Every structure is written in C-alpha cells, then in structure tokens.
C-alpha cells in the first residue's frame, strides 16, 4: 500500500484509455493508490473494464465504453468526465492495437494498416486534442501522457504499420508539447519495449512467461524483466508533480534496448 503522506495524485481526475487490461489496468490501480479522486477507464472491453472499476472501487473508478478511433466517443468521454467530476487533470492516452499480420512493406495489407493507424495514431491525436481543449478552457495545468514504444525510434523487420503509427505518436507528443506549453500543459510519452500484456501474449500466441523469455535478450539490463507495473510507475512520474518541469519527453522503459532478437516462425 502507498503511504498516505506520499500520494502523488491527491484529488486528481484522470482518464486512461485502454485501461481495462495490461499497462492501462496497472496504471489505473496505481493512480487510485496515489490518491486520484476519480480514474475513468475508457475502453472497448466492457466486461473487463467494469471488473477493473469494481476491483478499484466505484467511488474511485468508473468505466465508460470508448473507441478512440471515433472522435465523437472520445469527445463525449472527456466532456462527460468533466461534467461528472468537475475537472480533468490527467489524460493517459494508452489504447492501442497490434498488426493482425506480419505487415512487411512488400505485403502490406491496407485494411489492417488502416485499423492500426486509426487506433494507434489517429486515436492518440483525438485523445490529446480533446483533453487539451478542456484543460485550456478550464485553465488546468494538466498532464497528457501517450503510450509510445521502442518502435517509435527504430525500424522493424515486421509490423510496418505498427512501427509507422508509433513514430506518429512521438511526432504528436513533440508537437503538442510545444503548442500546449504556453498553457502550462505538459505532454510526454512512455515507450516500453516488449512487455507481457494480454494483447502481446495473444498476438504472439504465448503465455506471459514465454513473452518475457523472448524479450530478455533485447535488453542490456540483465537479471530483471519488464513488467506492466514498471511502465505504470513511469506514467505515474509523468502524471505527477515529480515531473513538473518535464515536457516533450520520450521516457523509455526498455532496459537499454538492444534491438529485437526474436525471429517469428
């Protein structure tokens, strides 16, 4: 449990997209532990989202259905949060998806490409846009955090669409941080290497232990394995006053990434 004297988000209201599982779920729990007055989980996984909200406590957490690729749903989620809870201090734009196939450039499937771009790039931009609008309107010096990836700063043998989308996230963060700085709004991103989330496990057809095993060689930091809690701790830092003079940062939680050593069969 977190010491009550060290709650970093006391009284804050936060939205976490993709908060029903993985990194988002871990962050929702951590935000609540650090005193957030309300954590709004926005996701399309309704059953899981409601379960997370109940596990945290419905007085501190609520679930709303939101497809981030739909601007009306994003706008409504942000506006309803402000109407119900009086403010929005933190937006953690975390919802994302993976490629449904290898997606090399020579065999690029545009239907799959569009889905990844709509969620991972367009959806991120919509979340930043609408969170920033209410923060500017209400003169809130808020914090906006996006989930990037090590794929945002390097190429890949596969998953071309995913790599492109994560590069777009980094460009979004760099531009938005410059534009919103005049309003005191900080915009950063956290970029993990491969972490065993339900999404990555499903995509690879592996359990968490297997995913961690194949990701270990890509890290220069030996003897430890990246967990969702590690990423959530990085997000907490960027959401809190501990990073009060930090904006435009790509905070890598990658253990000194050396590049992927995993070769899909």
TrEMBL record:
It comes from Quercus rubra (Northern red oak). Belongs to the short-chain dehydrogenases/reductases (SDR) family. Residues 12-193 form the Ketoreductase domain. This is Ketoreductase domain-containing protein.
């Amino acid at each position: 449990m977190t010491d009550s004297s060290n709650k970093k988000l006391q009284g804050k209201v936060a939205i976490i997209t993709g908060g029903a599982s993985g990194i988002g779920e871990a962050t929702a729990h951590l935000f609540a532990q650090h005193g957030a007055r309300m954590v709004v989980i926005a996701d399309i996984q309704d059953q899981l989202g409601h379960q997370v909200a109940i596990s945290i406590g419905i007085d501190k957490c609520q679930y709303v259905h939101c497809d981030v690729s739909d601007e009306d749903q994003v706008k409504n989620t942000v506006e309803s949060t402000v109407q119900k809870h009086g403010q929005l201090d933190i937006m953690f734009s975390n919802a994302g998806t993976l490629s449904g196939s290898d997606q090399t450039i020579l065999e690029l499937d545009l239907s799959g490409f569009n889905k990844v771009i709509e969620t991972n790039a367009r959806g991120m931009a919509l979340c930043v846009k609408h969170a920033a609008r209410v923060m500017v309107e209400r003169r809130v010096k808020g914090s906006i955090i996006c989930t990037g990836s090590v794929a945002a700063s390097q190429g890949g043998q596969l998953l071309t669409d995913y790599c492109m989308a994560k590069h777009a996230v980094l460009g979004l963060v760099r531009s938005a941080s410059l534009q919103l700085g005049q309003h005191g709004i900080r915009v950063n991103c956290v970029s993990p290497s491969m972490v065993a989330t339900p999404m990555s496990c499903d995509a690879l057809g592996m359990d968490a232990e297997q995913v961690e095993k194949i990701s270990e060689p890509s890290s220069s930091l030996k003897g430890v394995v990246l967990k969702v809690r590690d990423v959530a701790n990085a997000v907490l830092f960027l959401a809190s006053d501990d990073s009060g003079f930090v904006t435009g940062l790509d905070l890598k939680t990658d253990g000194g990434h050396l590049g992927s050593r995993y070769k899909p069969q």
